[in-house]
Write a structure and sequence with these properties.
CATH topology of the largest domain: Helix Hairpins
Number of helices: 11
Structural class: mainly alpha
CATH superfamily of the largest domain: Fe,Mn superoxide dismutase (SOD) domain
Largest sheet: 3 strands, antiparallel
Helix content: 40-55%
Order of helices and strands: HHHHHHHHEEEHHH
CATH architecture of the largest domain: Orthogonal Bundle
């Protein structure tokens, strides 16, 4: 009996959701696997290249700061739409079996492949964003990350102001990032739309989504309040510190 591709995709997404939970426990050298999902070859002529990774926490875990309603739309609708669109766009092309990072680097700046880049980057960015938050997060980092922030920004407060400014002044939709740049220095950058620092050679340590769908249900048009809440109550410093350690170890190897 024939089934629609949409129905088949829904079944595959449900079957493979559990894979995402373990992705962020892998080494930095496996980061492509963390963010691309399983590349799955299916019997017959239907292939599902990318799947929607599950959230790393319950949909109520970030309340009252980010509600389950926001996550249901942001993750279940927006993030999922990028996954579905990307699969459609790369199906039957030479990009179909590549990782998200490979697709992003191959299509960045190419106007003819803007649709592919935008959807691949948004799948990557959103997956990274979910892990940049945690229940009972916020506050200040410690250890090597705290020391590096003091060295490269002058103080944690100086970093915080730069990060807040990046998020608040990104016109329209986009992202604020803490990255390790190619010179080995921590840097705050902002990117518009789906752009990602990976395509410029920087290694993201954490990100904050400032597209309106990330905060509008809970904060309406008050983006500065959302930014303050992210830094004070949500940011996952453990995740950022782990990314710094992995990047530093890779550079030293």
């Amino acid at each position: 009996m024939l089934i629609s591709k949409r129905s088949f995709i829904k079944g595959v997404l449900a079957s493979f959701a559990f894979f995402a939970q373990g992705f962020f426990n892998k080494s930095w050298s496996q980061s492509n696997e963390i963010l691309t999902g399983e590349i799955t070859k299916i019997e017959g002529d239907i292939k599902m290249a990318f799947t929607l990774p599950a959230l790393p926490y319950a949909d109520t875990a970030l309340e009252p700061h980010i509600t389950a309603k926001t996550l249901s739309f942001h993750h279940g609708k927006h993030h999922n739409a990028y996954v579905v669109n990307l699969n459609k766009l790369v199906e039957g092309t030479d990009l179909a079996n590549k990782s998200l990072e490979e697709i992003m680097k191959a299509t960045a700046g190419n106007a003819e492949k803007a649709g592919i880049f935008n959807n691949a980057a948004q799948v990557w960015n959103h997956t990274f964003y979910w892990h940049s938050m945690t229940a009972n997060g916020g506050g200040k980092p410690d250890g090597a990350l705290a020391k590096k922030i003091d060295e490269d920004f002058g103080s944690f407060d100086a970093f915080k102001e730069q990060f807040k400014n990046a998020g608040a002044t990104q016109f329209g939709s986009g992202w604020a990032w803490l990255v390790l740049n190619p010179k080995g220095k921590l840097e705050v950058v902002k990117t518009p739309n789906a752009e990602c620092p990976l395509t410029k050679g920087s290694i993201p340590l954490l990100t904050m989504d400032v597209w309106e769908h990330a905060y509008y249900i809970d904060f309406q048009n008050r983006r500065p309040d959302y930014i303050d809440t992210f830094l004070n109550n949500l940011v996952n410093w453990k995740f950022a510190a782990e990314n710094l350690t992995k990047a530093s170890n890779k550079a030293a190897a």
